[in-house]
Amino acid sequence: MTVEGAAARHSGESLQPSPVVPADGVRVIRGSPVEAWRLAGQIAEFGGEAETHGLEIYRRRLAGASALVLIAAVGDRPVGFKAGYDRFQDGSWYSWMGGVLEPWRGQGIAQRLLEAQEAWVRKQGYRLLYVKTRNQHKRMIAFLAMNGYDILRLEEKSAPEDSRILFGKVMTPA
Predict the structure, then answer these.
(1) How far from 51 is each of 55, 56, 81, 137, CA to CA, in Å?
(2) Which domain holds residue 97?
(3) What are phi and psi of 87, to 5 degrees?
(4) 50 or 59: whose pLDDT is higher?
(5) Residue 114 maps to which CATH number?
(6) How distant, in Å, are the alpha carbons of 9, 45, 158, 171 from that of 98?
(7) Count of domains in the chain?
(8) Which of 8, 104, 129, 148 gives the lowest tally of CB atoms within 10 Å of its CB?
(9) Tens of pLDDT along 70-119?
């Protein structure tokens, strides 16, 4: 898949996608660390986190056989992603990064990505799926709770909004 326009933040282009898309017009396909990094660079909530991590960190973390990058696309335009890997080597799998571009939110795209990721994780035989988010991301916290994720641990930081919340969901066999 080409990533036409996906590097908007990195290249200075601006995307003007139509925010009205039927849910069935979304395809979820396997992607690459580069595609995930480019999309992450366009998501304001990451506050430049894609730049902080850098492309090489995306490539390194998402290089192994346990890595999965999913891209949500409308036509040929990537509009969201979900990426993770076997971080802990203990039968669990870590959903490291993901998001949907602002104009495309509220249309079920994040749900489609999550469901595809969970199906893949189950099929691979992982027993637990971890996700970490910052306390300031209230929509993500609500989204995870609505999808059956439990809070496992709070990693406190000096500012409460920067504290991290580790969620987990037991994966029932496929």
Answers:
(1) 8, 10, 16, 19
(2) 23-170
(3) -75, -40
(4) 59
(5) 3.40.630.30
(6) 16, 11, 25, 19
(7) 1
(8) 148
(9) 999 999 899 999 999 999 999 999 999 999 999 999 999 999 999 999 99
